[in-house]
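As a warm-up, study this chain.
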Amino acid sequence: MRPRRRIAGRIGFWLLVVAIAAFSLGPFLYAVVTSLRPGADLFTVAYWPGRPTLANYAAVFSEQPFGRNLMNSVVVAFAVVALSLALAALAAFAFARTAFRGRGTLLAAFLAVSMFPQVAVLSGLFELLRAMGLYNRLPGLILADLLLTLPFTVWMLTAFMRDLPKEIEEAAILDGAGTFALLWRIFLPLMGPATVSTGLLAFMVAWNEFLFALTFTLTDANRTVPVAIALMTGSNAFELPWGMIMAASVLVTLPIIALVLAFQHRIVAGLTAGAVK
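Now compare it with the structure written out below.
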């Protein structure tokens, strides 16, 4: 009976894996297939393009400034990641390795900020950016996205830094290391996996952010790709440029896939850090 149970368990396990993979990859594969089909074939059922074409990808760049929108997303996402990690590393060092009054309250305040929905701060943030002269400018969008990424980057890096041995810090101080040398030369190299996984999560948030990008940008030249894709319209559902929309969606997804594949080992190490003592 045991061998049969083992075989049945393995079959059930692999069936579950196949089901999860199909559920996860199905929409992306559908988008790829649709992006390679000509307009006349889009409303017929097919699991593979009979006449594959790159016309939809060419139309994405020729009929609107999608290249500029793509560059805007790259600039905003990388700037948000750099600023979030830099500020979060400093804050995490203070929260995790320095004892001061009100530390727990301040850390809880960071978490409380992330609990507010975007629409709750939309009007106030709009007035702030307009008063600062940052409306319809990429720096304003970067500042707005920091509101989404900074709280969880601070929490994640703080949790990881708390797990680092106290003896490492004491030995570095005995060797004459100052505060910034301690952070830059000791803690940051040890926090490599956590920094990569946290940075990738921040990148995905900034890359896919839609509401702030829609509200705080006005012209096509300053829009990011989620807004540019959403504004690909037609007079009705049957006249929407579905092929272009799918092609743009595939192009937007590829950088995320490339980053995950490039840093997958560090991502797993960062997400599982502290799980085993």
